[in-house]
């Protein structure tokens, strides 16, 4: 069965508008890329995950989604806005009907590391068994 992590990867890697903004090739990584030689790119990781006590068949997973590009990039803002449009209060549709995924976009932050600019986005995914 597909997990929240796989659903998020699917949503970020299959969206045609994000593909256009990011460029050719794989630009979405579900773990830290060894090098950030392919820019712009998206990385993401699980911050926390838990089973909701009131509802045994529902989990909540918090992710941090990071968009990376050169320090003077304005494209990074377009990518961040597209991710917000794509995921905020939206159901993630996958090829499986076994689970339902509702995503909510939270806080967005900006940071710099050397000559790279990073926009971090909190994304919560509620997984419900159907």
Note the topology.
Layout: H1 4-14, H2 16-22, E1 28-29, E2 41-51, E3 58-70, H3 75-87, E4 90-92, E5 99-113, E6 116-129
Parallel strand pairs: 1-2
Antiparallel strand pairs: 2-3, 3-6, 4-5, 5-6
Helix pairs in contact: 2-3
Overview of the structural elements:
This protein has 130 residues and is α+β, with helices and mostly antiparallel strands. The protein has three helices and six strands. The chain has helices at residues 4-14, 16-22, 75-87; strands at residues 28-29, 41-51, 58-70, 90-92, 99-113, 116-129. It has a six-stranded mixed beta sheet with strand order 1-2-3-6-5-4. The longest helix has 13 residues, at 75-87. The chain is globular. The mean pLDDT is 86.
pLDDT < 50 stretches: none
Instruction: Please compute the radius of gyration using only Cα atoms.
Output: 15 Å
What does the average pLDDT come to?
86
Task: Going across the biggest sheet, name each strand in turn.
Answer: 1-2-3-6-5-4
Proportion of residues in helical segments = 10-25%
Shape: globular
Q: Please report the total strand number as a whole number.
A: 6
Question: What does the largest sheet look like?
Answer: 6 strands, mixed
Query: N-to-C terminal Cα separation, in Å?
Result: 12 Å
- Give the percentage of residues in beta strands: 35-45%
């Amino acid at each position: 069965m597909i997990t929240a992590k796989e659903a998020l990867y699917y949503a970020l890697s299959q969206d045609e508008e994000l593909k256009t903004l990011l460029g050719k090739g794989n630009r979405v990584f579900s773990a830290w890329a060894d090098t950030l030689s392919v820019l712009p790119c998206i990385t993401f990781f699980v911050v926390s995950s838990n089973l909701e006590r009131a509802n045994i068949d529902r989990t909540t997973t918090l992710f941090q989604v990071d968009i990376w590009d050169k320090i003077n990039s304005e494209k990074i803002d377009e990518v961040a806005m597209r991710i917000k449009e794509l995921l905020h209060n939206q159901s993630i549709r996958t090829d499986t009907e076994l689970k339902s995924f509702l995503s909510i976009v939270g806080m967005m932050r900006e940071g710099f590391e050397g000559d790279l600019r990073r926009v971090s986005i909190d994304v919560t995914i509620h997984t419900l068994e159907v």
